[in-house]
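Deliverable D2.4 — example input (structure tokens):
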């Protein structure tokens, strides 16, 4: 073999081991998911090696005859699924979708209101993220810890006094729907546009659960297409807005912030949109049911789960305060060794310098639900977390139990065809 073949093979070996690790683990990261066979197939197509700058049928390059058709279909499916007037499937990630909106709608010095990081806000909406890079003036909404949501009265006051050009809503720790209906009049009164970042909950919205931002006052939704929405790592923008605003946003996409738009991922997104039209409602309902039940099991097993007052969660996410169990970093590391993959997370009272050892854990049920986990498996997950963290059982022992549990669920569900989940697909022998 040639000189560097072994190194290339080493990368491949690591990728195989990675697949195997996830095949045997309980995946509970709230921002991840796995794809359907048909969507995965799209990622391997020649679309992934091409450019199609501009909009369908108005491109700058030749060779886009089929790309145009795929993009037209993807846009139509998105408009149908989300009942939006406009859809742009070109952003290559949620952050890119956000950046496009920021560049399209806001100029340096303009004011934007956003959820605070400590209330689960995403870094792209913070001063060191895209919002800050655009030189915007940021004001944060007041957060109500007991309700784990924005404080409605104080937020109305803030919007009326600060008069932001754009009000951005939506978080990365997103337990309960944003009270858009209660806030939209205040925004309208001062002429602010409502933009909803649905990165985490896009699949729940697609399934008609959680909330329906475009009917509750939002003009624009941005999202990642790989969290509760079980598609490729990509982004999307949805609109129910005037043509001028939409045109500005689309300029924010191209030429603003992308050149190629990962056409293979866009095709995978199109396939997933069709699958969500057929299976999304059932899937979203099950994700939320599992999250609520897992939260109550963890509480019963002795953990401090936030949001108790409102039934812990209405989404795919639940949040656990583990200050008394050794802190977020320790518990997340211990669970990883025990075959349970989740992440440590800032809780509302943590300040930013706690980000390496925050008080909490964030847990999401969307991936385990996609392979068929139900109520009894939620109970089993809770038991495994308890014996690892509270009873301090050896991680290797818990890891075996976790692998046993996982081995009973082999297929990707809520999609066309059946593919073994976490299978490594070889093209070269
Ligand atoms: C995950 C997330 C994003 C960004 O998503 P990427 O697709 O990873 O770029 C943006 N906003 C929120 C609220 C998120 O949770």
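Example output (designed residues):
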């Amino acid at each position: 073999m040639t000189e560097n073949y072994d190194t290339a093979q080493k990368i491949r070996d690591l990728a195989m081991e990675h697949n195997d690790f996830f095949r045997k683990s309980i995946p509970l990261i709230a921002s991840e998911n796995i794809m359907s066979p048909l969507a995965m197939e799209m990622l391997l197509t020649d679309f992934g090696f091409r450019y199609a700058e501009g909009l369908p049928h108005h491109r700058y390059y030749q060779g886009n005859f089929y790309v145009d058709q795929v993009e037209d279909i993807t846009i139509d499916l998105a408009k149908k699924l989300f009942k939006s007037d406009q859809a742009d499937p070109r952003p290559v990630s949620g952050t890119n979708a956000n950046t496009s909106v920021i560049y399209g709608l806001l100029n340096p010095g303009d004011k934007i209101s956003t959820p605070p990081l400590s209330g689960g806000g995403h870094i792209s909406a913070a001063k060191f993220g895209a919002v800050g890079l655009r030189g915007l003036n940021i004001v944060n909404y007041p957060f109500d810890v007991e309700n784990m949501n924005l404080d409605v009265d104080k937020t109305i006051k803030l919007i009326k006094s600060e008069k932001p050009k754009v009000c951005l809503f939506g978080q990365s720790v997103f337990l309960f729907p944003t009270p858009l209906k209660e806030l939209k009049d205040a925004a309208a009164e001062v002429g602010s546009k409502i933009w909803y970042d649905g990165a985490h909950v896009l699949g729940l919205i697609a399934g008609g659960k959680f909330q329906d931002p475009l009917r509750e006052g939002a003009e624009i939704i941005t999202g990642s297409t790989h969290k509760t929405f079980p598609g490729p790592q990509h982004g999307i923008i949805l609109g129910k807005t005037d043509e001028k605003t939409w045109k500005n946003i689309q300029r924010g996409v191209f030429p603003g912030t992308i050149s190629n738009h990962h056409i293979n991922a866009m095709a995978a997104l199109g396939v997933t949109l069709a699958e969500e039209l057929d299976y999304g409602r059932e899937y979203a309902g099950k994700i939320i049911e599992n999250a609520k039940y897992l939260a109550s099991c963890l509480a019963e097993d002795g953990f401090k789960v936030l949001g108790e007052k409102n039934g812990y969660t209405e989404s795919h996410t639940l949040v656990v305060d583990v200050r008394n169990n050794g802190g977020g970093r320790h518990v997340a590391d211990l669970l990883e060794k025990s075959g349970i993959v989740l992440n440590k997370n800032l809780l509302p009272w943590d300040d930013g310098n706690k980000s390496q050892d925050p008080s909490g854990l964030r847990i999401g049920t969307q991936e385990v639900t996609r392979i068929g986990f139900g109520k009894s498996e939620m109970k089993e997950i809770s038991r495994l977390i308890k014996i690892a963290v509270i009873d301090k059982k050896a991680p290797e022992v818990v890891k075996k139990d976790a692998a046993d549990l996982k081995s009973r669920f082999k297929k990707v569900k809520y999609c066309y065809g059946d593919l073994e989940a976490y299978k490594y697909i070889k093209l070269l022998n």
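Residues 24-32+280-406 form a domain with the Aspartate Aminotransferase, domain 1 fold (CATH 3.90.1150.10).
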